[in-house]
Specification:
The chain has about 140 residues and is an alpha/beta fold. It has helices at about 1-20, 75-80; strands at about 30-35, 35-40, 50, 60-65, 70-75, 80-90, 90-95, 100-105, 110-115, 120-125, 135-140. The strands form two sheets. Strands 1, 2, 4, 6, 7 and 9 form a six-stranded mixed sheet that branches. Strands 3-11-10-5-8 form a five-stranded mixed sheet. A hairpin with an 8-residue loop joins strand 10 (about 120-125) and strand 11 (about 135-140). The N and C termini lie far apart (about 40 Å). It comes from Chelativorans petroleitrophicus. This is Copper-binding protein. Keywords: Signal. InterPro entries: Cupredoxin.
Length: about 140
Amino acid sequence: MKVSTALLVCAIALLSSVAAGNAEGNLASKPERLEPLVLGADLSFSVKEYKLETGKYYRWQIQSQGGEEFLVKAPELFRNSWVNQIVINDIEVKPVGGGIYGVEFDDEGTADVWFVPIVPGDFEFYADGFEERGMLGKFVVR
């Protein structure tokens, strides 16, 4: 009983020191701007791969040139990230709980997604229904 209590106290102390070391400063300030993703009217993506780091704050701008309705999905990335906000036409949307899985454009326009990846991995992003036509990319998070 005493051994397990000692292990528990050591584990809590270790986790507390790791958390304190990684939580210094305001994580959600001064995001790194990713290269904008342009959804081409010719059914193309301007960027096919983004390389990110866990624990860094990013601003991802998605721009639709119109022509089609596009639902840009990145469900695995968003499931493994903290999403701070989505900004559309100067209107901020603040997700809570489960977050988001995509952003839909009915016409041309721009949306910004502000997020911090938490878990490393390779996560696809795509325009739903247009993957086979070239609207597929990947986030590489390390």
